[in-house]
């Protein structure tokens, strides 16, 4: 199936940060409305299509868009019902912070970097799990559905989707290795809720799969007469491009995508765009040991104008008879360049990437807030803690 024909393209690829924030605000508001009601409101799983609403008008991409705060007159309830203890509810910003943290832990549960060896799988499984996890919380809230349990369910479902099956007991063991145990029965129950929340749309296109074909096409193009000018060798060296010359760029791009998959970027950009932009940034970082490259790579491999490749690759199409609109090429180059800048900013902890600059004190504060207002969790455990406190006071 072509990406353009998939549900990921026409349904799940969001138009902007504005739309992403709008969806998160709605999911948060629905949860706050439910938890603030004095009557026993049902705790539902909301599907994406039923709750999406009208898509907001696009804005300029450089516009800074903030999530709604409690100061806004249209914010709504801020505390749980009296029956639930009248505790403070999470804001959309609080939820976004928690989602970034939990999503960053998915590659440690499943994938090539999994803590438990039995849970090591291809990187595409971690990418699929991360996207399924984020899709679910576009229409649901962490106050209603335990993110730790949904994380494990996303990993289990992704392994099936990518035909890399593993025993669910291994995931239970994996959560224990991460000091965040999730019982097997909870994982299986959460899997059903997860599928309902993502409208049973299981097909996921991964950025990892795009890098290899782009690099192969890049290698072929750079050997052509039009492409030779995009390669810049070190002073005094001039030779034919070889297969291994692009390996440092390829390897660095794959490492960059490790950060991209746990961020918000895959919700707004196509996998091909992510792969191309990752190569742009990888071309800048290769050979720098601080960036995860191998020292000496920058000396041995040439500098490549990746953006120039994108622009010139489709200019001359007389051979196939395809006419490409120049304006479309300019728009693609602009979009890839803008995306490359977003990828550079991931190391600052921006755009939902929880791999860097996580404020643990802030996370602890939000987690304490969640424990008091959440709808999930064993009431027996809460009662035991209350009894222990009373006994200690007496």
Explain this structure:
It is a single chain. By secondary structure, the protein is mainly alpha-helical. It has helices at 7-12, 17-35, 48-51, 92-103, 106-109, 123-136, 147-161, 168-177, 184-197, 208-222, 247-260, 271-285, 297-300, 306-312, 326-344, 360-373, 379-393, and strands spanning 231-232, 303-304. It has a two-stranded antiparallel sheet. It is elongated and about 80 Å long. The termini are far apart.
Entry keywords:
394 residues; mainly alpha
Please summarize what this structure is.
The chain has 394 residues and is mainly α.
Topology:
Elements (H helix, E strand, L loop, with lengths): L6 H6 L4 H19 L12 H4 L40 H12 L2 H4 L13 H14 L10 H15 L6 H10 L6 H14 L10 H15 L8 E2 L14 H14 L10 H15 L11 H4 L2 E2 L1 H7 L13 H19 L15 H14 L5 H15 L1
Antiparallel strand pairs: 1-2
Largest sheet: 2 strands, antiparallel
Low-confidence segments, given as residue ranges, are 294-299
From the spread of the alpha carbons, the general shape counts as elongated
Q: What do the pLDDT scores average to? A: 87
Number of strands: 2
Query: How far is the N terminus from the C terminus?
Result: 67 Å
Helix percentage range: 40-55%
Strand order of the largest sheet: 1-2
Structural class: mainly alpha
Number of helices: 17
Radius of gyration: 23 Å
The arrangement of helices and strands along the chain is HHHHHHHHHHEHHHEHHHH
Strand content: under 5%
């Amino acid at each position: 199936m072509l990406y353009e024909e998939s549900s990921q393209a026409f349904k799940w690829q969001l138009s902007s940060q504005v739309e992403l924030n709008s969806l998160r605000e709605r999911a948060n508001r629905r949860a706050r409305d439910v938890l603030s009601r004095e009557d026993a409101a049902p705790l539902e799983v909301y599907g994406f299509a039923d709750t999406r609403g009208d898509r907001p008008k696009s804005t300029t991409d450089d516009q800074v868009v903030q999530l709604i705060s409690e100061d806004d007159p249209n914010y709504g309830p801020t505390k749980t019902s009296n029956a639930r203890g009248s505790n403070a509810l999470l804001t959309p910003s609080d939820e976004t912070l928690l989602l970034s943290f939990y999503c960053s832990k998915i590659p440690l549960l499943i994938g090539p970097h999994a803590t438990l060896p039995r849970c090591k799988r291809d990187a595409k499984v971690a990418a699929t799990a991360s996207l399924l996890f984020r899709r679910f919380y576009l229409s649901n809230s962490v106050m209603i559905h335990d993110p730790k349990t949904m994380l494990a369910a996303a990993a289990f479902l992704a392994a099936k989707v990518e035909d890399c099956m593993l025993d669910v007991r291994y995931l239970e063991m994996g959560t224990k290795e991460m000091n965040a145990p999730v019982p097997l029965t909870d994982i299986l129950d959460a899997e059903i809720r997860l599928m309902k929340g993502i409208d049973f749309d299981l097909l996921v296109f991964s950025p990892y799969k795009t890098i290899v074909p782009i690099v192969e096409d890049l290698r072929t193009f750079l050997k052509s007469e039009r492409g030779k000018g995009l390669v810049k060798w070190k002073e005094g060296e001039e030779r034919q491009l070889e297969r291994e010359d692009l390996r440092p760029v390829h390897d660095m791009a794959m490492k960059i995508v490790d950060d991209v998959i746990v961020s918000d970027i895959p919700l707004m950009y196509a996998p091909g765009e992510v792969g191309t932009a990752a190569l742009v940034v990888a071309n800048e970082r290769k050979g720098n040991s601080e960036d995860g490259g191998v020292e000496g790579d920058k000396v041995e491999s040439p500098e490549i104008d990746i953006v120039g490749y994108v622009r010139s690759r489709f200019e001359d199409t007389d051979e196939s008879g395809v006419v490409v609109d120049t304006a479309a090429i300019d728009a693609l180059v602009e979009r890839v360049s803008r995306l490359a800048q977003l990828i550079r900013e991931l190391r600052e902890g921006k755009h939902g990437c929880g791999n860097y600059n996580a404020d643990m004190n802030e996370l602890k504060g939000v987690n304490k807030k969640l424990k008091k207002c959440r709808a999930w969790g064993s009431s027996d455990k809460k009662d035991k803690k209350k009894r222990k406190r009373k006994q200690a006071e007496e």
